[in-house]
Specification:
The protein has 23 helices and 19 strands. With about 700 residues, it is of the alpha+beta class. Strands 12-11-10-6-5-17-18-19 form an 8-stranded antiparallel sheet, with helices on one face. It is globular.
Length: about 700
Amino acid sequence: MRYSELFEEINESVRERYELAMERITLLGKGETNIQEPYKDYFVRTAGFLQEMDALRQHVDTGDMQTGTFEEQRAYNQSLYRDILPGEEAYDKSYANPSYAVRQLGEELGALLCFLYTELRGDIIYAAEQRLFDLTIHAELFVEILCLFEDGIPTQKELKEILYYFVSDYADQTLDYRVRELLDPELDFATDIIMNSNLDDLRYLFRYGEYIGENEIRLADFLNRMPEEEIEAMAYTYTHGYEEGFRIAGIDLSKKKTVNIRYAIGQERMVRAAILQFENMGLVPVIYRAPIARVNRRQTMKPGYAGTSPNKQYEYDHRGDDALFLDRAFVERRTAVLRNAYESRRELAKTYAGPAVIEVFGENPFEPVNKEESLRLNRKQQELSVEAAAESARIVNEFIPQKDYSFTIIAYPVPEIGEQFEEIFSKIVEVNTLDNEAYKQVQQILINELDQAECVRVLGAGDNCTDMLVMMHDLENPEKETNFENCTADVNIPVGEVFTSPKLTGTNGILNVSEVYLNDLKYKNIRLTFENGKVTDYTCDNFDTEEENKNYIKENVLFNRDTLPIGEFAIGTNTTAYVMANAYHIVYKLPILIVEKMGPHFAVGDTCYSHSEETRLYNPDGKEIVAKDNECSLLRKEDESKAYFNCHTDITIPYDEIASIVSIHADGTEVTIIENGRFVLEGCDMLNEPFHNTSA
């Protein structure tokens, strides 16, 4: 069944409701209202936006969206997002901007009406997808609040209650649909665009409804000009890595039916080739976009396909909007709806093979501005958000156990990376296809030494104040066991690291990086202090006050927790990527997927083996990897809620900020692995070769 046919019945069931609501909105758009200023301007402008969305819906329904020149369609797409684009005449004067909304509408009601308008902006996507139910409930919500203001000025409590119950009452639809998006290949909106569009005609990009900027247009054009054999090879690197993940983990891929493909708009030509390759494995695609409704979002993260953000500050400003509805009753309702949604799709969940992710990088690093008008979770809500995330993860793992699926991740640049985009793209293809066998051998030399260590000491160079002592697990049978995984290019592309889950007890020190980009946010001079493997203090230099710096890290690295443990210690070996990045001056534009291979790194959060600790894994030399637990994850045997944190954030120290990495044996013997940013362990000369003939 085609995507458009799936919604015919439900669309018809709400059409009369929708038309009634739009009649009222149309009158308001003409200025027919007795709402007092300053609120009248807000409602008239918002009504105008909803009328635009109705026009967009009709254009899509009649097929008019596929007519017109490329430039005409591009101009129309830009007009849909003009309100939130950066600038004095756009976002600075938009009711989607908390600062402007509060300044114009007052402190009590401004933030609430800002939230309302931001949620309504999701109608761009709902119109593009012809989801009339979502358009209807949004129109009805707007009319309900409009009537409230026509009767006078409501209290903050009255307005907040309407918004709260809207989110809560419709959670069984919005949350359920999101779960369906994750699992059901019949929701083939994006698949249809990828497989049935003429990709040479870039007008296909505008069918998504997402903001289409220079990155999407130039990327699609570039891929269209690549020879077919190169596209096929790129897709093979990606799909073969996915397949290898199942083989290495000993998971039977033949029992799976769906693969979740996550990509960036503009990559359709490679994704089309990958879909055909996955079909040869017996897998059909499940492709969903990044979540739209606030109830399905987690801060600023975007799991699913997306385009370049029209305005990252806009997204950052609304990272805490769930403060409006996050309470105990809502968490309990959300949990019940989520469980029912997965229960009703139990069979689809069983055949889900896992995500295959194509990341992009190269956008200018985003340094957010904190706005006091933005909604924020209070202390109790922070604790609830942690609890809710943990419960959601437990439900997902119940129906889709991590031990039963695999994944792969690969990354490519976008044109924003600079004038040398096409050259950099080719270099990244080379980095993604380095010789696995050569790295496997040299990484085994590193592991052989590290397996003799009682602990490892990492010292920063120059202004970097890193001084970490990392404790290793004891090996009961060193002839057959190992602490470190020899990581080649399968699930985690490109090749280039050895990693372990260290002991927490005795792991102490300071982790410092001058600049790093984590979860799409830039951190300047981030410093984390650890005692017995857990974060005890943290700061950075992003903002003027220590309170702002701490809050920034707590929200976006600790995810509102007071602390997190070290889940991973690794030594990246991909010096080729490091030298390339420095040659093009793009180190701080690279994703953590590549950066983690370019120096030692620590992850805060869960171990790399979260929820699959019992799965037996072996390195290429035949030794079993036994360091998969730490003192936190072992608590799963008593209370799973204390064992997992549902996050894993890698923080890498680049080679040029490393003075030394030293393996310290139980008898006091010290063996230097890296000194002054270069590998000095015997047998690892290959890793220094990229540094030759370069000043990096």
